[in-house]
TrEMBL record, chain A:
Its main location: cytoplasm. Zn(2+) 3 binds at D217, D228, E356. Residues 101-121 are annotated as: Disordered. GO terms for biological process: proteolysis. The keyword Zinc applies. It catalyses: Release of N-terminal amino acids, preferentially methionine, from peptides and arylamides. The lineage of its organism: Eukaryota, Fungi, Dikarya, Basidiomycota, Agaricomycotina. PANTHER family: METHIONINE AMINOPEPTIDASE, METHIONINE AMINOPEPTIDASE 1. This is Methionine aminopeptidase. A protein binds at H200, H298. It is found in: Cytoplasm. Its cofactor is Zn(2+); Co(2+); Mn(2+); Fe(2+). Its EC number is 3.4.11.18.
TrEMBL record, chain B:
Keywords: Chaperone, GTP-binding, Hydrolase, Nucleotide-binding, Zinc. Residues 224-240 have a biased composition (Basic and acidic residues). InterPro entries: CobW-likC_sf, CobW-like_C, CobW/HypB/UreG_nucleotide-bd, P-loop_NTPase, Zinc-reg_GTPase_activator. Residues 3-198 form the CobW/HypB/UreG nucleotide-binding domain. This is CobW/HypB/UreG nucleotide-binding domain-containing protein. Residues 221-240 are annotated as: Disordered. Belongs to the SIMIBI class G3E GTPase family. ZNG1 subfamily. Gene3D superfamilies: CobW-like, C-terminal domain, P-loop containing nucleotide triphosphate hydrolases. One of its GO terms (cellular component) is cytoplasm. It catalyses: GTP + H2O = GDP + phosphate + H(+). GO terms for molecular function: GTP binding; hydrolase activity. The keyword Cell inner membrane does not apply. Residues 288-354 form the CobW C-terminal domain.
Length: 379, 368
């Protein structure tokens, strides 16, 4: 290296950047040429800026040297976010799962936007024909099968991504499409919501631990129609608070289903749900509602789960919709969202439970299309 | 609570002048002024609002509203409203919010969105409360409006402005002869008998008449009945028949219907609720199978008493409505006759008779 004519590298050189010969020893070791300084004072004064060059040039082995990456390759997504509880998103998410091309896809499967839903905004709930009602029975039954399969795998040590894999495979085995996949760009095939997550949790690399509660929300698209249901399950043994909030959610859903029949008002469902939640010292989430479901994943009506609401609409035979109360332990119904723009969490980090069924109003009452076995553990 | 007032009116009627006056007079307050494009928030990518600084209302700052993407599916909270609330969370609550609608926009759906949003109020200082809808009408165009502004071919939005308003400012009255003003007011009252009309020049008005009016509350509005009486006295009955029975005037098919309600039994109140929700949600009459062409209620207000003494107030805009008991009303003395005002399209005699039949049925109930 020709050094004698190189000026001092410090931008704040007090000597006017004369020709210099003092070389930075670290740069020398790293093989970086031209790091010359006119004197010790100049070198020390500029040290903070200068050492950035060392960091850039050091060959890194990311797993060994990056403190924010765990030894197993996982890391916390959005490390600077003010999380409300102890749950963290554990990244990286697994690769996008493939749906075989022979399976019919909803309109949003490729570009993320459910144009068919947008077109129907503001219209009253649809009355389904007898044929359509039969299709809703079929897809809802399939959805229940898949949920039960997923639930049978719940145990400490498995990741929510593993559940996603099970659900995804079970759905495509049945020649159906996993409705959440790419719906408004949701990245996975099922929503897994653990503890303080209210809904729309994204399956990731976090392993379930005993004491967790996990909601698995399955929706699938078969023969042109969607079927949607969810249940909250305990992971191993859970504490009394967890049992309380799960019971409140299940019970309030069951009681609200009992008043469904032609002529009943959607706005009255909240009147049944909220008192049950309050009696258990819990709160009803307000921003997320039940929804109409048929050939569209989400359509009219909107069904609030809280009392004193102005929901529009009267139930009529042939209407299909979901009721899906989200119940939070404690008195806070408010929520926050993670930076992934999907995961909704309680504002105080306390757990939240949910149960959902797809319903069909019949001439005399209601049919629970996604009905499954009674949850013995919640009685 | 942060009161929100929607200010509607055609281009040139004087909305901007009014808003400037509010900002100047309410010097010292933090006021946010939003140019509307609500009701369609899914399509908006970036939205800004102007916030006045308390010290100098002429200056303001522009703030960005962070709008969430459409991925918050099943979340019924309007994303535009959520964005305003988030802004207040970051930068402190406003004292008022003025939402100026674009010239032809119907304020009804926008009012619905904010009224609906009150279902998410935390009871904290930052809850947005829909205070009322103000419409600025250009007196110069007044009655000619039926020719000029509201032409036969339909853009529904324009008409919603008069129908959905709680306060109408008849502006530029210095430029118009008295007789024209009287007839314009007559037309406006026929279309919307529930709104208060003020004559203004250059938007000058005591702000107490347009801000803090609490038009969507469940408190009974004593002003209404008072206005009805004074209306009876002021008119010269020889020049035009009284408003109660026949609506001569419509502005592009929009008219109003006022019906007196007797004191109600429990069953009657339930039947009234059924009647109201059927007409609001399904555009039909619950006890009349004849297809009522073009029936649509844009706004409704009412006050009723039950035989047990409680009073109820009805508020409705578009599909949203609420019948709420007035707290403490049992002590208000003898139950009084009530009133129901409907504003919309197709509100002919068939509708009136359908409602009156409900009340007659009640008499039969009592008779049993």
């Amino acid at each position: 290296m020709s050094t004698d004519t190189t000026a001092c590298q410090s931008p704040q050189c007090i000597n006017g950047n004369p020709a210099s010969r003092l070389e930075c020893p670290t740069c020398n070791k790293l093989g970086i040429k031209g790091s010359l300084f006119c004197g010790q004072e100049c070198f020390k004064a500029n040290w903070k800026n200068h050492k950035i060059i060392h960091d850039l040039a050091t060959p890194r082995q990311p797993l060994l040297d990056d403190p924010s990456i765990n030894k197993d390759g996982t890391f916390i997504g959005f490390p600077n976010f003010k999380y409300t509880g102890s749950l963290r998103p554990i990244y990286p998410l697994s690769q996008r799962r493939v749906v075989p091309p022979h399976i019919p896809r909803p309109d949003y499967a490729d570009n993320g936007t459910p144009t068919s839903e947008v077109r129907k905004l503001g219209q009253p709930p649809r009355i389904l024909s007898k044929d359509e009602q039969e299709k809703m029975r079929t897809v809802s039954r399939l959805a229940r099968e898949v949920l039960d399969i997923a639930a049978s795998h719940v145990r400490p040590g498995i990741t929510t991504d593993y559940i996603d894999e099970i659900v995804h495979n079970a759905i495509i085995e049945r020649n159906a499409y996993p409705s959440p996949l790419n719906y408004r760009e949701f990245p996975k095939s099922v929503c897994t919501s653990v503890n303080e997550v209210i809904c729309h949790g994204i399956p990731d690399q976090r392993k379930l631990i005993e004491g967790d509660i996990i909601n698995i929300d399955v929706t699938l698209y078969y023969d042109g129609y969607h079927g949607d249901l969810n249940e909250t399950y305990p992971v191993g043994r859970v504490d009394d608070d967890a049992k309380k909030v799960m019971r409140a959610a299940r019970h309030s859903l069951d009681e609200s289903i009992k008043i469904c029949k032609p002529g009943a008002l959607f706005r009255d469902l909240g009147k049944v749900i909220e008192p049950i939640a309050r009696a258990s010292g819990c709160a009803v989430v307000r921003q997320y509602t039940g929804h109409g479901i048929n050939d569209l994943f989400h359509c009219s009506p909107n069904i609030p789960h809280y009392a004193k609401n102005k929901a529009v609409g009267t139930m009529k035979a042939g209407m299909c919709f979901t009721i899906e109360p989200m119940i939070n332990l404690g008195t806070n119904w408010d929520l926050d969202h993670w930076p992934d723009k999907w995961t909704a969490v309680t504002i105080d980090g306390k757990p939240s439970a949910q149960f959902e069924e797809t319903l069909l109003i019949t001439d005399t009452g209601v049919e629970v299309l996604t009905a499954g076995k009674v949850r013995e553990d919640l009685l | 609570r942060v009161p929100l007032t929607i200010i509607s009116g055609f281009l040139g009627a004087g909305k901007s002048t009014l808003i400037r006056r509010i900002l100047t007079e309410r010097h010292g307050y933090r006021i946010a002024v939003i140019m509307n494009e609500f009701g369609d928030t899914a399509d908006i990518e970036a939205k800004t609002i102007n916030v006045t600084s308390p010290d100098n209302p002429a200056e303001g700052s522009e703030e960005f509203l962070e709008l969430a993407n459409g991925c918050l599916c099943c979340s019924i909270k309007d994303s535009g409203v959520a964005a305003i609330e988030k802004l207040m969370q970051r930068k402190g609550a406003f004292d008022y919010i003025l939402l100026e609608t674009t010239g032809l926009a119907d304020p009804g759906p926008i009012a619905s969105i904010f009224w609906h949003n009150e279902e998410f109020s935390m009871g904290a200082g930052r809850d947005i409360h829909l205070d009322g809808v103000v419409c600025v009408v250009d007196a110069v165009f007044g009655r000619k409006a039926s020719i000029y502004l509201w032409s036969a071919d339909s853009s529904d939005d324009a008409n919603g402005q008069i129908a959905s308003s709680d306060v109408i400012l008849l502006n530029k009255t210095d430029l118009v002869p008295e007789s024209d003003l009287i007839s314009t007011e007559e037309v406006l009252r026929q279309v919307n008998p529930a709104a208060t009309i003020h004559r203004t020049v250059r938007g000058q008005i005591d702000l107490a008449h347009i801000i803090g009016i609490d038009a969507f509350s469940s408190r009974p509005l004593p002003g209404d009945s008072h206005r009805q009486e004074s209306c009876q006295e002021d008119h010269d009955h020889s020049t035009h028949p009284h408003v109660d029975t026949i609506n001569h005037y419509e502005i592009r098919g929009i008219s109003s219907l006022q019906v007196t309600c007797p004191v109600l039994t429990d069953t009657a109140l339930e039947r009234l609720d059924e009647w109201i929700r059927t007409i609001l949600w399904e555009n039909r009459l619950v006890n009349d199978d004849r297809t009522t062409e073009g029936l649509e209620v844009l706004r409704c207000k009412g006050m009723f008493s039950k035989n047990s003494g409680e009073r109820y107030v009805l508020q409705g805009v578009k599909h949203l409505y609420d019948i709420q008991e007035v707290k403490g009303s049992e002590d208000m003395g003898v139950p009084d006759v009530g009133k129901l005002v409907l504003i919309g399209k197709g509100l002919g005699e068939v509708v009136r008779r359908s409602l009156e039949r409900l009340f007659v049925a009640q008499v039969d109930d009592i008779g049993q």
